[in-house]
Amino acid sequence: MTKNDEISKMLDALSLKQNQIAENLASGNTQMRSLAKRVWRVQEDERKHIARELHDGVGQLLTALINQIELTAKEEASDETLKSLHDSLDLARQALSDTRKISRLMRPRILDDLGLEPALKWLTRVMREEEKADIALETQLSHELDGETQTLVFRVVQESITNAIKHAEAEHIKVQVVSQPSLLMVKVTDDGVGMDTEVALGPDGFGLSAMQDRVAAFGGQLMIQSKLGEGSEIKMLLVGNN
Fold first, then answer.
1. Do 196 and 230 touch, CB atoms closer than 8 A?
2. Which of 31, 78, 103, 240 is the 20 to 30 A CA-CA neighbour of 220?
């Protein structure tokens, strides 16, 4: 065997080894993404369970308590006791309202029953009313998404709006969702105070790092553009057969 033959053989072996490493890395990445999606699915199932327990369990108990207080108040003649009953009634109604709100935000039934677009309309309407922010929603859903991807989009929009209002103090927020057979785009822009993207994506960030990991589990990308004082843009892209 000549020296050139020996070098050629070594290069072939090296190339084979590199291909094996690349295949192992690809397989490992696929397994990691699959595991991350399974963990996320368990979390969403748990959210759904807790939301139903709150709505059907605690919510019904509070409704029964309100009915009982109303009934007692009708029969009670003492002004002092009546005042106490009405105060209790106000507290029970507030507790019921808060319970239903938490239940809906944990896992809105409308997402499971009617799908993504009605759920996004509901979310933006509720947050517009409660947070006094101007939130515009534009959707072009020409392609039906599977349940997990719908949940992903809903969570990205929910988290982005929450960040814009709570941390960036935004007054105007625009949400765009475009779904086509080979492309899914979610873009949320705001006019808030902006953020340091390195800090926001770090361990002490506002949940954006977890959102980025969640999007990556679906094979997508989450991009954040922001400057202090100039607002932010959070964009999610999934390319391929969504």
1. no
2. 103
- Report the side by side order of strands in the sheet with 134-141: 134-141, 172-180, 183-190, 232-239, 221-226
Report the distance separating Cα 17 and Cα 31, nearest Å. 21
Strand partners, 137: 175
> Do the Cβ atoms of 239 and 183 come closer than 8 Å?
yes
Residue 177's alpha-carbon distances to 79, 136, 159, 215, in angstroms, are 56, 11, 15, 15
Find the Cα–Cα–Cα–Cα dihedral 210, 237, 49, 60, rounded to 10°: 110
Average pLDDT of adjacent 10-residue blocks, the chain of 242 residues: 77 82 77 79 83 84 89 78 87 89 82 92 90 91 89 94 89 94 94 83 72 88 88 91 55
Helix (H) or strand (E) holding 84: helix 79-106
Which among 142, 157, 138, 156 has a CA at the least distance from the CA of 218?
156
Whole-number Å distance between alpha carbons of 65 and 70: 9
pTM of the predicted structure, to 2 decimals: 0.75
Distance CA 93, CA 84 (A): 14
Q: What is the Cα–Cα distance from 163 to 220, expressed in whole angstroms?
A: 21
Helices (H), 107-239: 109-113, 116-131, 147-166, 197-200, 208-217
